[in-house]
Amino acid sequence: MRFFIALEIPEESKQELKVIQSQIKEIIPQVRLTDNDKLHLTITFIGEQPENLKDKLIELINNSVVDISPFIVTPALIDGFPNIHNPKILWIGIKGDIDKILLIRERIKDSLASLNLDVDIRRFIPHIAVAKVTNFKISKLQEAQIQKIMQKEFEPIKVKSIKLFESVPNLGFHKHNTLAEIFLTS
């Protein structure tokens, strides 16, 4: 199974992100938008592992959220990987209770390492991937238009749980199945 751990975006917030995605599509028509149902904030991608690891991953997530109450994050900026000028992925960065996300991520990384699983050592930037683009350079005008999108006030996103997902290849795309939802303590 291909596992990943993520914060799922609540439905009301997905609608607001959908508006941002359509604005991006108007500016860069060749982008391929992330399916609105798949919008999430990845904590860590675990990758292909035996199915019997599922229970250990659920336990690991439960342990990683001990004493962490629900929290709020808010869309704040649009950027890209590897960068905004020549992106392969466009994403929305967040502000708010980032420390809680970073703490959860570090706890999960430590637990994955204790299970002898590979841990992504790249710098972690909490983000929501909203679009992909191939062989494209963003012009200064497009960049200014994209940044203008983020000048409005956005509704906060309330994070109440963390999910363990399975990513299943499906006709060149991936379907995400929820395997477990672990609620943050109030």
Describe this protein's structure.
The protein is an alpha+beta fold. It has one domain: Cyclic phosphodiesterase (Cyclic Phosphodiesterase, Chain: A, Alpha-Beta Complex), CATH 3.90.1140. Helices cover 30% and strands 36% of the residues. The protein contains four helices and nine strands; from the N terminus they run βαββαββαβαβββ. The strands form two sheets. It has a five-stranded antiparallel sheet, with helices on both faces. The chain has a four-stranded antiparallel sheet with strand order 3-1-8-9, covered by helices on one side. A hairpin with a 2-residue loop joins strand 8 and strand 9.
Q: Give the name of the CATH superfamily.
A: Cyclic phosphodiesterase
Instruction: Using the coordinates shown, work out and report the CATH topology.
Output: Cyclic Phosphodiesterase, Chain: A
Strand order of the largest sheet: 2-6-5-4-7
In CATH, the architecture is Alpha-Beta Complex
Largest sheet: 5 strands, antiparallel
Average of pLDDT: 91
Q: What fraction, in percent, of the residue positions are helical?
A: 25-40%
